[in-house]
Design goal:
By secondary structure, the chain is α+β, with helices and mostly antiparallel strands. It has helices at about 30-45, 55-70, 115-130, 145-155; strands at about 10-15, 20-25, 75-80, 80-90, 100-110, 135-140, 160-170, 175-185. Strand 5, helix 3 and strand 6 (about 135-140) form a beta-alpha-beta unit. The protein is globular, with a radius of gyration of 16 Å.
């Protein structure tokens, strides 16, 4: 683990199934090559994302800077000195009335799937998004990942709110998107503060 004070662990957790320590912390620019590699795997290997071509490191850096510069949380799970997964919250839609709603994105390295990092990342991105003053979080889940991701999000307090049928076409087939939602902080019980 880095000794850079800006990368001090925010949350340390031990995975009981492997006894390996995983640290959830704020993502840093030097994590981006590993983040880019994880995302490229999902872009080329399935329909977890609707991107067709993996973004290069320069584009991933631009996206990272845009999100973090906009006050959105971006985190990694560091396991064994490597990025085992990452998550961020970003705008759900760009029109101003949506500004209090975020969409989560969570990707776990193929070598770390099944170790509980996904849940840790979702729980932490929920906490940080609420602390940042956001009031609703959306999960947009493609049908390729629906069983695992739907159960993961449901365990983290998300409710199923709909299915968009055949909205993507990738890898020679039409793909649905499942929508799930959960309130953050006071949700819609009070006026927004941010």
């Amino acid at each position: 683990m880095s000794t850079d004070p800006s990368r001090t662990p925010d949350t340390a957790m031990t995975d009981q199934s492997t006894s390996a320590e995983a640290v959830i912390r704020t993502a840093a620019a030097d994590d981006l090559p590993q983040i880019q590699a994880i995302y490229a795997h999902y872009v080329t290997g399935g329909v977890a994302t609707f991107e067709i071509d993996p973004p290069d490191l320069a584009e991933m850096t631009r996206r990272f800077e845009s999100l973090t510069g906009g006050g959105y949380p971006y985190i990694v799970a560091e396991a064994g000195g490597a990025v085992g997964g990452y998550a961020y919250a970003g705008p759900y839609r760009v029109r101003p009335a949506y500004r209090h709603t975020v969409e989560d994105s969570v990707y776990v390295s193929p070598g770390h799937v099944g170790l509980g990092l996904g849940r840790r990342l979702v729980e932490e991105i929920i906490r940080r998004s609420a602390e940042a003053g956001f009031r609703q979080m959306m999960a947009v889940i493609s049908d390729d990942q629906s069983t695992v991701s739907i159960h993961l999000h449901a365990r983290c307090g998300f409710e199923h709110v709909g299915v968009l049928k055949s909205v993507g076409y990738k890898m020679g087939r039409w793909v649905d998107s499942t929508l799930m939602q959960r309130p953050l902080g006071e949700g819609n019980r009070a006026e927004p503060t941010r």
